[in-house]
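Why should sequence recovery work at all? Because a backbone constrains its sequence more than one might expect. Tight turns favour small or flexible residues, buried strands favour hydrophobic ones, and helices have their own preferences. The token representation captures these environments compactly. In the example below, the structure is given first.
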């Protein structure tokens, strides 16, 4: 019985990639998943020098044309579903960014409660359906100030949602909860543990020209 060879080709757009190394890691992971799940051969066949674009080619062998066509259709559906998830993820990232910017501006210019005056909005994470969002904040240098700021934000949640609705053209403004941003504390803890197991770490980051991991995180947060 003659074998039938089926070939499929998909072009991937990877806007989140910032290097060829990151792109190759994504492509390699996708290739391995396709080979394991569908028992096909897969390889990157074009755009090898592009950071945010790739072409994946898949080849399969079947005993009947209908079997090959069905498997290629499943592969195509798999890829379309992956693209849909990627687009949703990028949309949520944009919404998170908008919410963070507008919340920061609202608190700076409009909030009258003195408890929220020292608040910095560090990040916003909304659910895919935009029903809920967690807002991560920092405030002052002590836990008492932070606790008061969180209470003030919870009290102002209705006002903040109404103002966001007026400013942003979104289908829905999510219900917001507010939590303390503990990124720096976690980074300090990790750095402390690293110093215990690697005493040479302090020497590595001892010069003025280099930053410690904690300083890098703090610098990234302030630059957002």
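From this structural description, the recovered sequence reads:
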């Amino acid at each position: 019985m003659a074998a039938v060879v089926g070939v499929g080709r998909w072009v991937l757009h990877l806007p989140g990639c910032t290097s060829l190394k990151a792109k190759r890691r994504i492509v390699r992971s996708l290739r391995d998943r396709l080979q394991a799940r569908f028992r096909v051969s897969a390889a990157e066949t074009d755009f090898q020098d592009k950071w945010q674009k790739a072409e994946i080619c898949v080849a399969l062998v079947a005993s009947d044309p209908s079997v090959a066509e069905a498997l290629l259709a499943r592969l195509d559906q798999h890829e379309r579903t992956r693209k849909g998830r990627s687009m949703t993820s990028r949309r949520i990232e944009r919404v998170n960014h908008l919410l963070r910017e507008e919340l920061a501006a609202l608190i700076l210019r409009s909030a009258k409660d003195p408890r929220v005056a020292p608040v910095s909005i560090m990040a916003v994470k909304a659910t895919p359906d935009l029903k809920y969002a967690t807002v991560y904040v920092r405030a002052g240098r002590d836990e008492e100030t932070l606790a008061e700021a969180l209470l003030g934000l919870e009290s102002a949640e209705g006002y903040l949602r109404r103002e966001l609705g007026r400013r942003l053209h979104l289908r829905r403004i999510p219900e917001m909860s507010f939590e303390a941003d503990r990124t720096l504390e976690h980074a300090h803890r990790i750095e402390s543990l690293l110093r215990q197991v690697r005493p040479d770490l302090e020497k590595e980051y001892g010069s003025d020209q280099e930053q410690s991991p904690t300083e890098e995180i703090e610098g990234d947060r302030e630059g957002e």
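A few observations help interpret the result. The longest helix spans residues 65-109.
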